[in-house]
């Protein structure tokens, strides 16, 4: 996971790509390489793709891609689920 936070009006192409490219390229590569030869295809997304996070439009876009890829695979009759996880880790005080 790469975070390159910035308000949308300050989001550069480099910051946008830094957060979206690893998830999009990685997920799409797995989809292409594995194709139909799997029983399960689980993508770890984030609730940020659904509700958004301030200054993380790029991160949210990458997670929305995973949600859409899972829907695409299911439309092809292939297994897929995208889990929209909330923050995972120790709570901060």
Automatic annotation (TrEMBL):
GO terms for biological process: fatty acid biosynthetic process; secondary metabolite biosynthetic process. Pfam families: KR. Residues 1-91 form the Ketoreductase domain. It comes from the Eukaryota. GO terms for molecular function: fatty acid synthase activity. InterPro entries: KR_dom, NAD(P)-bd_dom_sf, PKS_KR, PKS_NRPS_Biosynth_Enz. PANTHER family: ASPERFURANONE POLYKETIDE SYNTHASE AFOG-RELATED (PTHR43775:SF29), FATTY ACID SYNTHASE (PTHR43775). This is Putative secondary metabolism biosynthetic enzyme. It comes from Aspergillus kawachii.
């Amino acid at each position: 996971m790469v975070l390159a936070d910035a308000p949308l009006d300050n989001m550069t192409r480099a910051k946008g790509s830094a957060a979206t490219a690893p998830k999009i390229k990685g997920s799409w590569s797995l989809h292409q390489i594995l194709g139909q030869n799997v029983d399960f295809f689980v993508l770890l997304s984030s609730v940020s793709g659904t509700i958004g996070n301030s200054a993380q439009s790029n991160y949210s876009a990458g997670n929305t891609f995973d949600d859409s890829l899972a829907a695409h695979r299911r439309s092809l009759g292939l297994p897929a689920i995208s889990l929209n996880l909330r923050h995972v880790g120790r709570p901060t005080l």
